[in-house]
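Supplementary material to the annual report.
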Amino acid sequence: MANITKKVSWSSRGDDSGLVGEGTPLLNGSEAPKHSRQVSMVANLPSQLLLPLLPEEDAGSCFISHSKVTLAHSLDYDNIENQLFLEEERRMSHMSFRCLEISRWVICGLIGILTGLIACFIDIVVEKLAGLKYQVIKESILKFTEVGGLSVSLILWAVLNSTFVMVGAIIVAFIEPIAAGSGIPQIKCYLNGVKIPRVVRLKTLMVKVFGVICSVVGGLAVGKEGPMIHSGAVVAAGVSQGRSTSLKRDFKIFEYFRRDTEKRDFVSAGAAAGVSAAFGAPVGGVLFSLEEGASFWNQITVWQIKSFFASMISTVTLNFFLSIYHGKPGDLSSPGLINFGRFESDVRNFDTKQCLVYFFFLFLFCAGGLLGALFNVLNYWLTIFRIRYVHRPCLQVMEAMLVAAVTATVSFTMIYFSNDCQPLGPEHNEEYPLQLFCADGEYNAMATAFFNTPERSVRSLFHNQPGSYNPLTLGLFTLTYFFLACWTYGLAVSAGVFIPSLLIGAAWGRLCGILLASFTPSNPNWADPGKYALIGAAAQLGGIVRMTLSLTVIMVEATGNVVYGLPIMLVLMTAKIVGDYFEEGIYDIHIKLQSVPFLHWEAPVMSSPVICFNRIEKVGTIVDTLSNTSTNHNGFPVVAQVSDSDEPAKLCGLILRSQLIVLLKHKVFVELAQSRLSQRKLQLKDFRDAYPRFPPIQSIHVSQDERECMMDLTEFMNPTPYTVPQDTSLPRVFKLFRALGLRHLVVVDDENRVIGLVTRKDLARYHLGKHGLEELQLAQT
Amino acid sequence: MANITKKVSWSSRGDDSGLVGEGTPLLNGSEAPKHSRQVSMVANLPSQLLLPLLPEEDAGSCFISHSKVTLAHSLDYDNIENQLFLEEERRMSHMSFRCLEISRWVICGLIGILTGLIACFIDIVVEKLAGLKYQVIKESILKFTEVGGLSVSLILWAVLNSTFVMVGAIIVAFIEPIAAGSGIPQIKCYLNGVKIPRVVRLKTLMVKVFGVICSVVGGLAVGKEGPMIHSGAVVAAGVSQGRSTSLKRDFKIFEYFRRDTEKRDFVSAGAAAGVSAAFGAPVGGVLFSLEEGASFWNQITVWQIKSFFASMISTVTLNFFLSIYHGKPGDLSSPGLINFGRFESDVRNFDTKQCLVYFFFLFLFCAGGLLGALFNVLNYWLTIFRIRYVHRPCLQVMEAMLVAAVTATVSFTMIYFSNDCQPLGPEHNEEYPLQLFCADGEYNAMATAFFNTPERSVRSLFHNQPGSYNPLTLGLFTLTYFFLACWTYGLAVSAGVFIPSLLIGAAWGRLCGILLASFTPSNPNWADPGKYALIGAAAQLGGIVRMTLSLTVIMVEATGNVVYGLPIMLVLMTAKIVGDYFEEGIYDIHIKLQSVPFLHWEAPVMSSPVICFNRIEKVGTIVDTLSNTSTNHNGFPVVAQVSDSDEPAKLCGLILRSQLIVLLKHKVFVELAQSRLSQRKLQLKDFRDAYPRFPPIQSIHVSQDERECMMDLTEFMNPTPYTVPQDTSLPRVFKLFRALGLRHLVVVDDENRVIGLVTRKDLARYHLGKHGLEELQLAQT
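Predicted assembly:
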């Protein structure tokens, strides 16, 4: 990872399509170039495909993830159209293609049902356990309010919280660290084409589900919505493959779908189903998977409708079972885990003048972007600190327990010192009203915010009558919850950041609404602070996660009123623009910190020279190349004949490491270079069976005799890999990569000779910063 | 267009991605191939890029559009990254890129506002005029019911209708024939990359708007919603270019956006805004433009949010002005031209059992697919008939008038002979209740369906009390309206098919609901036929237009209730599957009949050999090639040096006809092949000023001396056109074309020598039929 011979800086800007940068490469370094041919080319032709001359040792860089070392690979979204593949396609009848299509629909239905059921399970268990916990604490508080000694209640609360969180943190830290957090960064990467180990395994799902329950019941400032997206994705990956490698069960169905191209489509449908179950937003789900994995949606009509189907099924399933659980079967009014409640667009409260006022006060909601950026910056520093010092699992568990105890203590203190007593109206909808030191028939308003699951607090802030909170309560709550949520995100527990963001935003939004109303008491239109809470929630969430289109649709679907669409959208856009000025979105920060080669919507660079194989290659050479850990390449161009000189040879095809490993495992060797295999021994099935966990090269034993044999790669290689001429501009390469979801792109000269290979990793090393194209600073431990 | 030396049939099936076909080429013909080299290649390598050996005369095929001959070109969505372009990009500062981005937002806002205003204008004028017309007729009927002589009323009705329709038909047939119909097929083509002449001109917009008003007021079985999409697109194309070639005004703004890539993005936002204004469905609008123009959405996050913004603005504008017009400013309850009214998901009417019943009765709604297919087949035959015999404008006007008169007569007859009298309740919402022969305090139910604008009829069918219609009325109405609508679509008037489809479906859906309720009178849940009307409307519309994702979202947004999402989606899917078995969607039929080279989501084939230019080429050669009407190519590969032998030469770049014309016009000549131009005379601005109406080659005069000069194409050509090797499979080529929105793809051999050129037209010539890949039958006059 060291001796990079040249650093390259591009002065980049948006190209005409508004997508990627276009610019001039400036060679900063001055030492003699290693491969003078390429460099002279580069120097002569500005703004071209640049070969940054990375030494070969750099190719298989180890990426340092939070608390562990991960080798991140790319997924293959380009079909390998080799002879095997073509022959199979030709053998299949029209009928079997139709059956495949039906299977896809069935799988999407199953994904929807299972995702809905998981959401339902989480919701019911959390509600039961949290209810129990709050009941116990409430009784204790009631008991000790009179006699004194409320510290016992505090300790009870803190201990209960810490215990739940401890369980949640232990299973995450010791069993499956990838299940930490919301999982949205990981799913973003997966949809973008980065293979993250273990991210879609059954074990991850189990840990995720129980982890979420523990963290939410443990009273942390977290939500259970984000993890649903990850859960949906895991369900999709599992169901679509028709087998579980964790359980060692192969149902022998859906074998056709065992490859990256198909699996990714299903995972995207699963993520959509997850969003749909979390927020009751099927269209938002589809747009989410579109926005995050949009790069290869060149088959939109074919797949989006399936995603939509899965989303619909998932929200209906959740709704159906929840309605049965609540004893009102058929009441389809809770389509998601979080329900914003119905916002009516009554004329009185939302007239034209109000509209203009909203526009005028938008600048106030730029605050969302600022607060979001602050949140992200604080969390960034915290995460760096965690990567450096809190990387041992037991330390992580202890930190999580500490946060849980502190959360309980702070909440208790705030409630204890608050004197915001509100009358307990007849139609009060507080689940656990705490009287504490209030008069009879009154309750403590601070407790509705703190002594509650975050989902309920959000709903109270949106819908409680004007006057339910006094400004001081809201101010203090915003302040403390902001820091608690910021500290919590990134802990080794599985939990999401959506709900805490909404809660912070709703609190200060409502505060603004109250202040505004107090300045202009004459206008009754401004009396409802709930709407300000909604806009504030959108601003804060937008400022933290920086999604726009899908988030707007999700919020509109969750509020159930399209009238709020325009203000929500404007707020989200403003928050994004303001926030982006300071810091990236929280998911992008975490992706960067985990050093995953994620392709942004911005510009990149690439590398050379490459190791090529002959069409008929010596087994020994292949084994040596694959075993060489320093050249941990994943794709190898196949060329007509590598001459002994350094002259590049003509491109014939491309073969993958995984294919070579299967070939070596099945010993598809010929003894002489000239003799061809009369009978092919391998079928596509052999490749599918090995998918996706191909054995490492070390597990394959090749005898000394076999090393002298030859392998004929012709019928296994992809004979028509995508290529670009060497003077292609960077944005053009980037566009091709994103549009087709490529993993490798062969660079050829004007005689079709291989002179380089562009991989996703090469592209992701650079990003478009404020001063043109910059090299990414990898996080150092 | 004749001597095609070989016809090729592919036995195609969906490839792995479910997208495109994969198959074996079977050479049917047996005569000696003209270009034996390519053919032998093809014969040896099955399933490869096939060169169907079309003679060169075939390249510029004339496409026969309805009643006129049109030359359909492709749009260029691939940026020409030549030296001019790169230099301009380099000169531009970061600030100017930001300004461009802001301009894009401003333009999208303007598009939304203008589209909303147009929708508002159409709505108000139609309401006024139709109100006037129905008032006059109603008074006449009232007068003559008593005294006899109702035939005078009939004649009055027929004459009024015919007059309005005549005006509408005359402006369409004589002034701008492209404004006929809904414009959705044309916009689909445009978004897909086919340049249809005059489709986004100001004149077209004017004709469209007034044409729609005339046809709706003229009482035809049409809607005003479809044309809104076309109108939005025209507005977008106009605003984004900052000039009007029709009005000969150039505002000297937005000059950067004067090219196909940018313009198409704006047009797609405009189409979204149009959908949004028509149905009050901003998300549906975005999905519509995504579904129809999905091929090149590799920049989804960047553009979709802008489309969404335009959509939001358009629906808010419409709502705002309509609310002012209706005297209730701020009442944001009519977000679109058509408003389905609020469907409540009350528990009583939509319980679990009801859900299951819906699922069970879905098969009944396959009828939607069948009826839709029937509609399409009938309309297909009718259109063929029209293309053959009714292609003179005056005939078209007469046909339109005939239809208008017949519609009035049929309506009148139905009302006259109907004896379905309903009591006029206190909360009746009929606009023009006709008493006719009914008792006092009653009205004629048939008249609510016929004596009304179609939008109001749809709403009555959805929301009127159970028992408002008797089954016979509905049955007769369905039957007559079906044939009327079928006859009407394709007339030379500008009008849409959405509302008639909804109306037919709502009528038979309500009929089904009534019959069902009468069989099971015990169950009060089935008493509301309005819900069946909604499902029926969805089924019929889906069966006719065959959209799925976007249509579901549009319907859900129009009903304002996400609970109906799943049944609507299932109905639309069923209708599509059933309908596709018989016939394509109505828009695809009309696209096919107009023989536009539209790229479907299915597989294609391509052609060779090509005419190449040298980097430094003789002016005479270029002029001759461009002038040769039989080789009406639009893109020419530039090669290193064309040898005199038939050997192909190495590819250097690609240059377009339009570029060459600009070069010729500015006489960028050098006298000797060896001398290079010291000073370049042309700027990108010169190309932009000529865009999009490049002068024909005939208008450029080149003297005999100049013919001997040379032109240096190096700095104007695109130096890195996308290429594929000759053995690339068809689906792969197709994927590349769709994903990147290409117009030309150069086919090279393994030494990078040009051996063919794939154009959109070549790909569109073939389509995937029931028996594999079939050659498209072009419509013959």
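The CA atoms of residues 403 and 456 of chain A lie 21 Å apart.
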